[in-house]
Specification:
278 residues; globular; mainly alpha
């Protein structure tokens, strides 16, 4: 997370978000290809149409997330990304007809309230704040929630191994990103920029590797220890990222931010308790 903030804010000067996303996809594709080779390449088990959809959803998730860092205070962006249970519940209720407990809904309200308080504080204290960032990050978490539902279907119905899902998702995503980057000036500018500053390219590689390993670890944790342990781990990681970001890149701070954080993390804890009960 801190690598993402440093890359976008300092190295890329709040530009080239789509080029950064394209580079991430290329690295993810390469890492997944290595895993597939080590495991032994098998015939694709899932219809390609699913991966075309997953690739698009992943482009929206990662691309808009990178864009939002340009105009939102990083802790605010982290809180929004941590609020994935809210669209997941909405999607589950509307699409799957699932029912949730009152504590789940209270947890969702607290998380939304915490995010709103952070946005109000950012509007007054963060010089790069732009409301478009809220729209971008909300679209990103909705796409991520839908992507999770599609991946669940792919894994359960087609028994696709994780490396296959990652490989073909990012392969199709690269096509979308090439269209976006070549349709704008980001492809030429990004290539020229990384050739002139190879240390930035090395940072992008490190950031991509860290993201890939983190996602792989969470999938393994979910499989071995269940949803509660995974949720606790991701929540702790997000809290640590916010703290580390505040140390490495000093930013506005005050009672409004504290109040928003308390409301949000109370919602997260309440949601965790509801997951444990279920």
């Amino acid at each position: 997370g801190v690598l993402q903030e440093g890359l976008i804010r300092n190295d890329l000067d709040n530009e080239l978000a789509w080029f950064l996303t394209l580079a991430q996809f290329v690295f993810y594709l390469g890492f997944a290809a290595i895993q597939r080779f080590q495991r032994g390449v098998e015939r694709r088990k899932t219809p390609f149409s699913y991966y075309a959809l997953l690739g698009l959803l992943q482009v929206i998730t990662m691309g808009l997330s990178n864009l939002s860092v340009q105009v939102l205070n990083y802790p605010t962006q982290i809180l929004f990304k941590s609020a994935k249970p809210v669209p997941t519940m909405m999607f589950g209720a509307l699409y799957h007809g699932r029912r949730y407990s009152p504590s789940d809904y209270v947890a969702g309200v607290l998380m939304v309230l915490g995010m709103l308080i952070f946005c109000v504080a950012d509007a007054s204290n963060f010089q790069h704040f732009n409301p478009k960032g809220i729209v971008w990050v909300v679209c990103a978490i909705i796409a991520d929630a839908v992507s999770g539902a599609v991946q669940e279907k792919v894994s359960s119905q087609h028994k696709a191994p994780p490396d296959e899902v990652v490989f073909f998702t990012h392969l199709t995503g690269i096509v979308y990103l090439l269209i976006i980057c070549m349709g704008s000036s980001e492809m030429a500018e990004g290539l020229q920029f990384t050739m002139q500053k190879p240390h930035v390219f090395a940072k992008i590689c490190t950031y991509s590797l860290a993201g890939y390993l983190g996602a792989s670890f969470l999938k393994a944790l979910l499989k071995s220890s269940g949803a509660l342990a995974t949720l606790a781990t991701t929540t702790s990681r997000k809290a640590a990222a916010i703290g580390l970001s505040a140390v490495v890149y000093p930013k506005p701070f005050g009672p409004t931010y504290v109040g928003g954080a308390v409301a949000f993390f109370c919602g997260v804890l309440l949601h965790s308790s509801a997951v444990k009960v279920r």
